[in-house]
Specification:
This protein is mainly α. The chain has 20 helices and two strands. Strands 1-2 form a two-stranded antiparallel ribbon. It is globular, with a radius of gyration of 23 Å.
Length: 490
Amino acid sequence: MKSKSYLISIVSVAVLGGLLFGYDTAVISGAEKGLQAFFLGASDFQYSDMMHGFTCSSALIGCIIGSALSGMLAGRWGRKRSLILAGGLFFLSAIGSMRPETIGFDYGVPTMGLLVMFNIYRIIGGIGVGLASAICPMYIGEVSPSKIRGMMVSWNQFAIIFGQLVVYFVNFLILGQHTNPVIESIGQGMNRVAPGSDLWTIQTGWRYMFGSEAVPAALFTILICLVPETPRHLVAIGKDNEALRVLTRINGPEEAQVILADIKDTIIVRRERLFAYGYLCVFIGVMLSVFQQVVGINAVLYYAPRIFGDMGMTNPMVNTVVMGVVNILFTLVAIFTVEKIGRKPLLITGSLGMAIGAIGVALTFGNSALSLVTMVSIMLYSACFMFSWGPICWVLIAEIFPNTIRSTAVAIAVAFQWVFNFIVSSTFVPMFNMHITPGDNFGHWFTYGLYGLLCVVAAIFVWRLVPETKGKSLEDMTRMWGRRKNEEKE
């Protein structure tokens, strides 16, 4: 019998991977000042801005590794077992980042060796994020019926943003009556902790923030053991009967037989080389990932408290939580319109809205008389991303590739996403702080002006090259790319 509740239950478990994705990437926003102050107390080395920038971004190195490995693991181990591995890595990273002294270091004594160990734990968590970011939408896309697939995959983005909101709120609660330390520049990329800074935040607060991830990580790892493997992977490894059982519970017996036959028609042929359907297919998937990052959103998400602080806001953590709520609401817009409006209209509209928001920030940032306009522009920029590139990019990556190359192509596309995430995140602060003359706002308008221009380019790319996938089955996409390849030969 067809069971909607069964589909919702297994998708909900996979969506937890998206929540951990968001949680792990955003936890640094609340913890980074306490972490910086802790390592500024080291006696065997000087903790520079460059070192801190790397430490804040080190998880992204793991994300690149995890996403690059995701295709091989998803193809050989299956989607389910790969997600179990991701959950275990999340848990290990949370515990290790909370107490990096566990192996061979004195508790509370900052050293170069301890900094290296902390970054290793963050990279381990990043590998988990990289796996989850590629395989969770792949899993959801492969178990969901085509009529609601876009909506179901969009819930993964909702979970990512919800995970970020949760960790913003958790960090806020952990901080409580304590305050983040004040970091004073002493020139040449070096800093010191201002006298009177809260010692609890420096020694303990950041540990609780990283450690809080262990709870959802453990829950995800346990629950993912209870869901089935995807029907498409089961067919690929010759387990047609198991695939039929899963399809029957999701779609009903009659439709399950039709879907199974359709899967076998497109998957039993062979595991094809990456460009078997032409270069354009892979190029579009990769560029969707690249544009999702170069529009600059993660520079805002990762550095939100600092940005709001620079805007003169009295409580940057509260502003960050408010932005998280706005992001949640606009992600819901995508979830409930993606199957009605389609993928392309949402992407184009969101790109143009982001461009307006980014240019608004560029023109007003640093002007105290226009601080309200700056805040509204930041919110517009973020909100437009949340109903467009945030969820829709993941939807398209999960469904645009043919069955026989999906795991490899998704892995490559998501790896590019994390590479450009790292580039954007690591270049934001130096670009933002650029000056032509002392005290000018050149870096502010240049950075957001560049993001605004790239948003316009992204809109043109979608309009000209990206195919609409609304209402099409995964097998329909396989046939579509096959026809295009044959047309190119003729």
